[in-house]
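Minutes, project check-in
Item: structure for the 698-residue chain
Input as provided by the requester:
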Amino acid sequence: MDKYRKEHRDRLVALSFVSVLLILMYGPAAPWFVAADRFVYDVLAGTVRNSTLDDGVIVSVNPAKKSRGQILDELGKVTQVIKSHRPARIVMPSIPDIPPEVELPGWAAMLSSGPTVYVAHDHRFAGMAPKSGVFLLQPDSDDILRRAALWHLQGTDWVPSLPLAIAFDNPDVAADPRMASTDRTIYFSNYEAVERYPAEEVLSQGLANDTFAGKTVFVDADPNLAGAVATLPSGQFVTRSEITATLLSNIEQGESIISPSWVRSTEWLIPALLGIVAVLFLPDRSRKDILTIGAAAVVGLLLIELALLTIGRVRLDLGRPMFIFVGAALLIWWLGGEDKKAAKHAFKRGSDFLSAGRLEPAFAEFRRCQPSETLANVMYKLSLAFEEQAKPERAEAVLDWMKKTQGPQPTGQLMLGRKNGTPQRLGRYVIERKIGRGAMGAVYLARDPRINRPVALKVIPIEKEFEDEELEEARLRFFREAESAGRLTHPNIITVFDCGEDKHLAYIAMEYLSGVPLTTYTDPHKLLAPSKALELAARTAEALDYAHNQQVIHRDIKPANLLYSPREDVLKISDFGVARLTDNNRTKTGIVLGTPMYMSPEQLNAEKLTGLSDLFSLGVTLYELLTGEVPFKATNIAVLMSKITSEDPIPVSNRRSGIPPSLDTVLSKALAKRPEKRFSSGAEMAIALRNCAKYASA
């Protein structure tokens, strides 16, 4: 499936998902999903700052072990003392019910004189007190008290709530047209505590005569916490007096949280808009971008809701819109994973076709993959294969596809002259600069002028390295091994594009990776974290497993041949097809090419090699990455060979902290002297390394 068809399909799937989710969330399944709105509101409401009722005081009678009559008598005595202090008003939101057949206490008569007394509308005291209002708790289905109506329909009349009835004595509140709206609902956030006095302290006559002067005094039989009747969004347990006090404070000080009429339409519009954004803009993004955008959207919506609550005192529920957007983002992210999985299979099939020389089906499979640098390298190799088969028009088709999907390659400053023996051109490749040197020759950054693509050009002075009688055999082996390496197509193996001979120099054109060899991290002062070193070794083991299944052995695994790009977190094995050229051969100077300290015992003994030799070398490499030293060291080759073939290294967990003891077992198996005692494959070794990485320090 090409990119455009994939995006079209993903958008259709996401649109269907969002549509169904919108219908469910705001339709028949709304009660299930409204919990998302409530959760977000509760989290944010607890951070909203409210002003306390400055002149508020609560006096509570302790009802423990007292009859209703005893409680009423004590409330009467407390009320009489408070009235003598000349308070601004007295509020009684919580008085024990008095059945119709029971006579009212004698002190009820004093409610109509002195400071104004406010009682609940449905209490028998409402006929004695000058003012009353409805006190009604309206908790949500999860028993959290989040809202309160300002007006209540009693029969055919609209009656104000108790806090509103109290606030109407304030001229500013009475003149506010919003308070006259019968559909007005205000929302709770948190409770700012007011001063409390126990009834015993009031009756003890130990208070000054003006303690309650000019204050709003709440008289109840609900002690703090023990008398709580509701839970606010902030998680606070509150009594009836505390509920009335916080609502009264909000109303009088203009801090009421409301939900205007425009909020309802906005709460429908926002999820629809977020759904459209998700459908239009997420399908063509990478999985990382989708997660980033999803997280940014959630944070943005949270900040919007918080700003409306704290600044505008407006409740706009955005929990469900967040749910819709995150749901759509996760769906598209998952679809991207499915596409990635399908692309991975297509890449493998294409690689197999390319290795078998079936170029057309390889081209078809590669076009199903997502554009990437690895894919570009393989397609470049495919174009060269078409040229070798004398199909220039198909090679051009591949290059055209690369230009459309990858874009133009960056242009470098070409070296026009020859400096320090550096050739200006080898074959079709224009050399820019030298980027490295190995035992066999130099590595140059070059460019294929046909499509302006950078390549790493490994140059070997083959005529200087081999005697005349060995030269022809070395030349044949060189091209044969380069061809074998060219069959390898794996994300963790440097791709070999081309090989040739020019100006008495053999060269291999390879993928250029802007990274550093892992020798950078063998310095004891620059060691990688153990978990990172194990992960890189596991990737190497997997790549070796792939190569071994293709009947290709590397023969020279060491940190210098493992290239790593920290910025992109990409590791690739280099120099496949080069080590075999030097195997069992000496240069004219008599130096054995290769690196003995990383060689397996069978390689040192010139025995027939299998892929298990590479796993031994990988074990040595990992040991060095973890400790900064190779496990086998000696002053001469004879002693080194003896140690490699007969001695066991010091357990790596004894040499560095943060390394699990289980890794000692893994390395002991990887460094076994006999191949049959090592891991059976690179895949098995990779699994063991990743299991150890779970317990290694990061």
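Outcome recorded: Residues 19 and 279 are 11 Å apart (CA to CA).
No further action items on this chain.
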